[in-house]
């Protein structure tokens, strides 16, 4: 079975069943994990947290959220040059 979602794609993570601290909300696919049998797995990073989680494809749904971009390398470089 192939992976449905691509690296870098922003999706919604469903809340975990029962006693779990996994939040629901937007997350970004960091890696598509290899598998032979069993569920298709992804490594995702929630946009509201600083660490990554491994989740099943079933726990992810398409999202309308957009990943916030930081400053580009050219913007950082121009700031550094203008301060000299």
UniProtKB/TrEMBL annotation:
Source organism, top-level taxon: Bacteria
Protein name, per record: Uncharacterized protein
Species assigned in the record: Devosia chinhatensis
